[in-house]
Amino acid sequence: MIEGSIVAIVTPFRNGALDEERLADLIEFQIAGGTHAILPCGTTGESPTLSHREHERVIELTVEVVAGRVPVMAGTGSNSTAEAISLTRFAEKAGADAALLVVPYYNKPTQEGLYRHFRKVAEETSIPLYIYNIPGRSGVNMEPETVARLAADCPSIVGIKEASGSVQQASRILSLTGPAFTLLSGEDSLNFALLAIGGRGFITVTANVAPSQVASLYNHFAAGRLEEARRIHYELEELNKAMFLETNPIPVKTALAMMGKIEEEFRLPLCPMSEENKRKLAETLERYGLLG
Fold first, then answer.
1. Domain that holds residue 147
2. Which are the contacts of 193, defined by CB distance < 8 A and separation ≥ 6?
3. Domain holding 139: CATH number?
4. Number of folded domains in the chain?
């Protein structure tokens, strides 16, 4: 089981290519900050624009640099079941501890199609699998009943990153799956709320820039210090909001560039922030003491 503050780490580029040195530095920054697990090749890692070889290299490099110090949950999802199987097999062979598979996007499968997709990946691999439900990007919502069906039928499907934005849906998933199934928040603004209903952690964007603060929210909650966890939740509210001034991962990569950790480089169709939003972001980072 992977729990706690799991950073959806960015993929740094330099002159159009993967910047391996900066990625390794970011991983060290996360581990030093107390992040509990690393997730490469998620939405925040710009996985849709990575070539297959780049995708594999990011996973491979992450496993190498982490060197067993914290778990690695590799993003291996696709809207093609065969491709998802191939990427998941690679992650397993590379030594990842688990794989995160997004609900197939654009195809808009039925609930039965979603069930068969994830069941097929589970049948063809042996690594622990986490479903990633994000209807705002995939165009289809993974219903709690479908999640529960997969959890019952596929032992390797052990959890879900729930990013529907609905606490009610997250609660329904937990009520149907039981305590053995791991629910992780997929939205930083709801991290505390989903912990409160039985979640075991969160896959976070904000931890890219403030790993120790985000990890401390989970640490306090897990230790039963609820008032302290709640205080940190409210302290992070403005920073969480700033990470979504524009489409993720544009703000978080811009923030990391302002912090001197990566180049401010994206792959089209993602592009640099507007000057107005960049100003707002810089002001927020300054207030949090993250610049200079």
1. 4-225
2. 167, 185
3. 3.20.20.70
4. 1
Q: Give the predicted TM-score (pTM) of the model.
A: 0.96
Over residues 4-26, the pLDDT tens digits come to 999 999 999 999 999 999 999 99
Closest CA to 39 of 12, 78, 11, 14: 11
Q: What backbone phi and psi angles, to 5 degrees, belong to 98? A: -165, 170
First to last CA, the chain: 37
Residue pair 263/253 in contact by the 8 Å Cβ criterion:
no
Q: How far apart are CA 248 and CA 43, in angstroms?
A: 8
Beta bridge partners of 38: 7, 72
So what's the pLDDT on residue 253? 98
Q: Residue 24 domain-assigned? A: yes
The residue count of the chain comes to 292
Segment 197-204 mean pLDDT: 98
Flag whether 291 is in a domain: no
Active-site hit among 161, 218, 253, 278: 161
User: What digits encode the pLDDT tens for the residues 27-84?
Assistant: 999 999 999 999 999 999 999 999 999 999 999 999 999 999 999 999 999 999 999 9
3-state secondary structure of 158: strand
Q: How many CA atoms lie within 13 A of 61 on its CB side?
A: 22
User: Among residues 130, 132, 253, 278, which one is catalytic?
Assistant: 132
- On whether the CB atoms of residues 188 and 236 are closer than 8 A, the answer is yes
Question: Is 132 noted as a catalytic residue in this protein?
Answer: yes
What six digits make up the tokens of 235?
Answer: 């302290």
156, two tokens: 């390797």
Cβ 155 vs Cβ 183: under 8 Å: no
